[in-house]
């Protein structure tokens, strides 16, 4: 299991998005939060901005759709250049069909769970997904405090992934920082979204390297490391 860091541009300066995307050189992904002011009480960006970003950076885009009707919109984000598209379990009308469509179009398919949504009802869907995202804040805003009470859900999700012998990734998003990343890694997460901890730092690329080091050390100690 390889540690991956995905800085969230929600905490970047939106007037300089191309520059900000390049400022996290060395990151595995660039996390792009798409919000529609319906599924979450905030509004960010859409397909045209994702298209421009995919031309502006070589870092693959990890698009997190916090929107209603992801079944209708997700394919457009793959066409816009996203390498991974995450839809919310709470919003998708037909998650299996949607995951298959995202994969068929050539991107990684991922499903997110809000803090109050349990993983267990979705156990049978896991083989259809490349990544599961456990939200560690209520979606909608950057800079919120990490919800410690999500750690058991991260642990249970990792156990389910292992039990089914799957290679899928387990992402955490919300309040991930130098203070919390080790707890997430110890619980079994391997893809870490960090907004304010990266873009709030004087040197975002150095912050990515430091977070990666912390997560890798914890992962190695916890014995999750098995390569994928
Ligand atoms: O999806 C979201 C918020 O809904 C996140 O991606 C945030 O952008 C993460 O920001 P920090 O909590 O790391 O500041």
Automatic annotation (TrEMBL):
The keyword Manganese applies. A divalent metal cation binds at residues 31, 33, 64, 173. Pfam families: Ribul_P_3_epim. The active site is at residues 33, 173. The keyword Membrane does not apply. Binds 1 divalent metal cation per subunit. Belongs to the ribulose-phosphate 3-epimerase family. Catalyzes the reversible epimerization of D-ribulose 5-phosphate to D-xylulose 5-phosphate. This is Ribulose-phosphate 3-epimerase. It comes from Streptomyces xinghaiensis.
């Amino acid at each position: 299991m390889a540690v991956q860091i995905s800085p969230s541009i929600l905490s970047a300066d939106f007037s300089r998005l191309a520059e900000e995307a390049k400022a996290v050189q060395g990151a595995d992904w660039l996390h792009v939060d798409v919000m529609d002011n319906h599924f979450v009480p905030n509004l960010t960006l859409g397909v045209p901005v994702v298209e421009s970003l995919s031309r502006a950076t070589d870092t693959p885009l990890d698009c997190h759709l916090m929107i209603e009707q992801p079944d209708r919109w997700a394919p457009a984000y793959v066409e816009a250049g996203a390498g991974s598209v995450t839809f919310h379990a709470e919003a998708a009308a037909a998650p299996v069909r949607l995951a298959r469509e995202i994969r068929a179009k050539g991107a990684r398919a991922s499903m997110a769970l809000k803090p109050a949504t349990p993983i267990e009802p979705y156990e049978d869907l896991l083989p259809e997904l490349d990544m599961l995202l456990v939200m560690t804040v209520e979606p909608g805003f950057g800079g919120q405090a990490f919800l410690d009470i999500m750690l058991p859900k991260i642990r249970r999700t990792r156990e389910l992934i292992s039990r089914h012998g799957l290679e899928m990734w387990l992402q955490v998003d919300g309040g991930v920082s130098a203070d919390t990343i080790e707890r997430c890694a110890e619980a079994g997460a391997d893809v870490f979204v960090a907004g304010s901890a990266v873009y709030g730092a004087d040197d975002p690329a150095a912050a990515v390297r430091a977070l990666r080091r912390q997560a890798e050390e914890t992962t190695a100690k916890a014995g999750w490391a098995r390569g994928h």
